[in-house]
Amino acid sequence: MAIARRIEIAKQLLTELPLTLDRLPYTPDFEAVYAKFLTRAGMALTRHEVWWALLHARKRGLGSSPCKRRRNRPVVPASIPAGS
Could you tell me the residue ranges of all domains in the chain? Predict the structure, then answer.
């Protein structure tokens, strides 16, 4: 299977992740993602190969994962000088 196809599948799965990618290894959620990946790929791949594809898809900015969420930062009114 071409690497580009693996990354395309990973991109799709990134949008479905219930956790951040960093918290996924060694969890039942990873096993579910792994099973979905194998189904979509139509061939046997190792967990390492699937993990690699997920990481590279994220690194390339593909897909949307909860890892892109950021905490809301407090808004400082413009009337307060910086450093106060």
Answer: 3-66
